[in-house]
Amino acid sequence: MQSAETLWLCKPRFISCLRSWSVTIPQVTNPGVDVVEGCRLPVLRKNQENEDEWPLAEILSVKEIPGRKLYYVHYIDFNKRLDEWVTPDRLDMKKLQFPKKEAKTPTKNGLPGSRPSSPEREVVRAAGKSLPTKTSLPDFQVLQQQAQNGTARRPMPNQPGRKRKQPPNCGGTDEDSQDSSDGIPSAPRMTGSLVSDRSHDDIVTRMKNIDCIELGRHRLKPWYFSPYPQELTTLPILYLCEFCLKYLKSLKCLQRHLTKCNLRHPPGNEIYRKGTISFFEIDGRKNKTYSQNLCLLAKCFLDHKTLYYDTDPFLFYVMTEYDSKGFHIVGYFSKEKESTEDYNVACILTLPPYQRRGYGKLLIEFSYELSKVEGKTGTPEKPLSDLGLLSYRSYWSQTILEILMDLKPDNGERPQITINEISEITSVKKEDVISTLQYLNLINYYKGQYILTLSEDIVEGHERAMQKRHLRIDPKCLHFTPKDWSKRGKW
Amino acid sequence: MSKLSFRARALDAAKPLPIYRNKDLPDLKDCVSINRAVPQMPTGMEKEEESEHHLQRAISAQSVFREKKENMVIPVPEAESNITYYDRLYKGELKIPKQLFHIQPLGLDNEQPDYDMDSEDETLLNRLNRKMEIKPIQFETMVDRLEKASANQLVTITEAKLLLNEDDYLLKSVYDYWVRKRKNCRGPSLIPLIKQEKRDGSTNNDAYVAFRRRTEKMQTRKNRKNDEASYEKMLKLRREFSRTVTILEMIKRREKSKRELLHLTLEVVEKRYQMGDFTGEVLSEVTAPLAEKPMYTSPITLSNGNRHNHKAEIKIKYHGHHNISVKEEDPFDFVRPRKKYTRRDPLCRPGRPAKRQHVVNKADIKQYDFHSSGEEDYPLSPPSEPDEENDPDGAFAFRRKAGCSYLAPCVAQSSGFLWEHPELVGLDAVRYRHSLTALSVPQRCVGLARRRVGRGGRILMDRASSELDTVLKQLDSAVYTSFGRPGPPDCPDPWLSSQNHKTMPRSGSSLADILSNIQDLRWRCFRPRPTQGDCTGDRSTGRPSVDCRLSEALLVPAKNSGSGELFLNTPSAYFAASAVISASGQVNNENKPHNATVNGVLQPSGELWMNRSGRSLCGGGPLFPAHTTTSTPQSLPNHRDQGHGSAVSPAHHHHNARPSGPLPSALKLATVATSSLDRVPKVTPASAIGSMARDNHEPERLALNGISETTVPMEVT
Fold first, then answer.
1. Which of A66, B146, B232, B321 is 20 to 30 A (C-alpha) from B181?
2. Of A185, A304, A438, the CB nearest to B38
3. B622-661 per-position pLDDT tens digit
4. Which residue in the set A225, A269, A404 is minimally distant from B207, CB to CB?
5. Which of B475, B504, B535 delimits the end of a domain?
6. Where is this region: Disordered (chain B) (predicted)?
7. Residue B131 confidence (pLDDT) above 60
8. What is the pLDDT of residues A362-387, one digit of tens each?
9. Phi/psi of residue B261, each to 5°?
10. ipTM
């Protein structure tokens, strides 16, 4: 704790990090008051109906550009992808909440937390409470380094209330446990592509670092942090080659690059083509450059994706749409060559310009078609994102309902089906079938047995949805032979 | 749930579920609450994200409307898709091929530079283009090379010149521009790259470091605490097994060599039997001493540590100085022969009955050559290795070799030199004297030396220094003349020389010339002779020089010294060795009919090689004139103190002449090596001899340089 105190003395601005929020005190109204990291206050934003709303937001970072200050805000209970830099006039200073210095012995309410409590979070807090106050110290050290690196962003540690299900090795045992010089501080697990343990989150990864990406005809606004070379993060626009996804700092460079890059499709084997839709399979070991570029791009839109380890154990299935210029990337999913947990998808993404047009479902459908060829059931790697959950639920619902509605009475008997059968037909893992049936409220216990019931609105809703679903995978167009990766020494 | 008095059975995935329409079951409403009996499946999302406002709104909207409502979707930052210059940027059109694309991943790497010119570069390019024509791609290639060559620090202009091979003006301007740009660059490289992990773990938490290598770690199953430990055990087991396999492999090779050696020995004996050479007469005839050379008994300087103007010399010296201190604890086997004989040398000195010397002939010796090197048996380790701890002599204990006939030391004939042999009676008077010694080829005088026979039958020259050295050097020509030309013309075995010609015809190429020269030399020099002068010939053979040369070569990668480029690197040395050795193998076969010797033939090649290399180490004599020009007095003490004995390696006394065996290959090797080094043809052998001159320090050097395989470096050489 000694070193902790020292730390506080020399870096007073970190104090804010260990504060929680108290209800406003009179001096807030003072216009001269400083809004620092950790403060909470309502911030103006436009909702989808283009109406003003003032959701509570937390200041994550403050930066000064000539003439004014900018505040990086996270809207509480909104997804991080909506975090943004705002001008001071969008802050409602009247309702400013200062972070209160954290008590040495945290009480239940005194614990910091960036979000209002919910039952789940109580659990997390309880876990956090059991940790000594030192818990966040390692983060400080990491952050201090960041600060010394001279980044514009002020360091801000994790809020301890935010998902601090830390393994003990970075809990408060000793401050050096995350010290860089001291061995390997709890590297993430090596399988899979997503992190559920966000304890390594620091302020750097919590904030978007790329303003804008130009990819082919599109300009994309990244949603999350992505570890593109740091010197490129200050650019107003990062240029990507549409086909090889190489990142370039300027349009001139992109122009030059295009004279040398003759790719007009993802550099892999085309394993599916129907109409303008194609799928290319890329081996993360054999084609590292492309795989890495793809991952960097995908990370901009996938919060939980980790790029900690290399791409070797993954295959990448890139979906493209053809036009006379080439095969334009629409989305992709990655897949572990060997999954110990029946994952048939690691990361999945439809690029923003193509979202909400049925491509996501097409990607999902394709992933299950691959599983069907492999003769396995599969499930996407967890955690799912909000959009992932909606897409998968929608796909599962439609797939299962399709089967249920197609079942015809057999010899006058009521049609029946087992969950295992559904799973086998669809390659959807049993658990996902059950959760979908539950979600749709199809399972009922009736007269001593479970039955599936199809209500009117379910049937109608399904029929409407299926009418809109034009894009489908045609299994006949799939030319795919699964490889047995376990027989190779290494991927 | 509270209303219900029974518990629903668990949902069975294998049990058929009948499908009803709601309208068919009007009484279903009563059972609704039982839904909860089915355990709620997790959504798979993170809890805190699950409660996010927009998601919850979307979920509830979906459950209410059964479809998405436009204003209920989860909002995301918007994307634009109206890049107007797209068509100008991405030129050309692509017709969709009928076939699916199939790509060979290896073909993806084209030679295009990774660097892409920016507008700043374009300005420079435009300026340069006023004076000369330079294409963007050319500029990019230059910058690309400069970038890729600069790992930690920028390449210098001289390096850049080598790297780029461009016009000087262009190079200078681009280089200066690059240096300036690089200094202003905010990133670590002008080609933006993903931050790499550092091995020290300092980047483990760096958010910008991506795509770290997966360390070789088993992907352990869950719920198994000891998986990691057992995995490590398995790794260890695997390592040990692979070591066992290696050892067995080596044993196999060794035994093969032994068998072959046995067969060849048998053949030799048979041939001798056919020839009726029961007394060794044929051999002794063949090996009859040449005309006695005049001896100079005046004191001379040791020209032993020859100083070369070569960088390697420094290196060698360094090791020479450290020699003594390192010796005792040196864990490597090279030292073993040396130390061993340091101790035993006094005993050995009395020598062996002279008989043996002439029983050995060249062909015989070449056989060894064939065996041990022809098969590239480098890693063949001496079989006696393992029990070294038990021996009081430690690693340097003498060990009996299977298949080797050992002869008792002739203690009575304490002065039992070869010339004590009946045929050579009367020659032993000179054996304790330092006499002026000269080499036949190159014709030069090495100064005062005393010849004696080491335990393994190697001939050692103890050299003495004197003030007269300078004078003696001038005697060279006299020596030459007085020595006569004991070359092929005098050769009692003209067949051999002709044989040599057959194998390596003098095609007029320098290589052949050198080769035959050396072969002649070898022939002369390895004839067992009673005179000390002749012994010098022993040293002048190519074998030692090759030994050292190759050790040099071996050292190059390890030491990475400035002299490195002058030597062959290891692979090429190996290559040269194997190539040459196989050639010599043929010679051996053809020579077989002339073999008439038994002694020492059975000695396993491993030790034989050690002998040779050891012997080579004791050779202080020059092969090339460059060698003689300088002498290193300071190295003399070393040499003297531990030199004689340690210089001797465990060869056996009676194999006096045998050491000539390795010569052909060695010489060829030297030649090949030399010729392959076009630029510095002289340097390599010269330096090699230099290191040879360092004689006994050589093993030390090898050891120090961490070439740990027991006798490998020696055998390689």
1. A66
2. A438
3. 334 333 333 334 433 444 444 343 333 443 444 444 444 4
4. A225
5. B475
6. 372-395, 627-664
7. yes
8. 999 999 999 999 999 999 999 999 99
9. -60, -45
10. 0.76
The verdict on residue B269 lying in a domain is yes
The reply to whether A381 belongs to the active site is: yes
B109: Cβ contacts below 8 Å, ≥ 6 apart: none
Give per-residue pLDDT as tens, B183-206: 888 888 899 988 888 878 788 888
The predicted-structure confidence for B666-688, as pLDDT tens digits, reads as follows 444 444 444 444 444 344 444 44
Torsion over CA of B604, B606, B609 and B614, rounded to 10 degrees?
A: -110
Report the C-alpha gap between B647 and B629 in whole angstroms.
23
Cβ–Cβ under 8 Å, residues A207 and A222: no
B213 has a chain A CB within 8 A of its CB: yes
Task: State the best of B64, B103, B123 to mutate against chain A, taking most chain A CBs within 10 Å.
Answer: B103
Nearest to A255 among B47, B87, B89 (CB): B89
Task: Using the 3D structure, point to which of B184, B217, B237 is the last residue of a domain.
Answer: B184
Number of domains in chain B: 3
Q: Which residues of B touch A445 (CB under 8 A)?
A: 8, 31, 34-35, 37-38
Tell me: pLDDT of A421 over 60.
yes
Q: How confident is the model at residue B615 (pLDDT cuts 50, 70, 90)?
A: very low
* Residues facing residue A194 across a β-bridge: A305
Q: What domain range is B444 assigned to?
A: 434-475
Q: Does B213 reside within a domain?
A: no
Instruction: For B629-641, give one letter per residue: b (16+ CB within 10 A) or e.
Output: eebbeebbebbee
Residue B668 lies in a domain: no
Which of A254, A389, A410 is most worth mutating to test chain B (most B CB atoms within 10 A of its CB)? Answer: A389
Do B178 and B116 lie in one domain? The reply is yes
Burial class (CB in 10 A: 0-12, 13-18, 19+), A435: buried
Q: Is B185 on the interface with A (CB under 8 A)?
A: yes
Q: Is residue B129 part of a domain?
A: yes
Q: How many CB atoms neighbour CB B298 within 10 A?
A: 15
Query: Which residue is listed with tokens 């799939």?
Result: A478
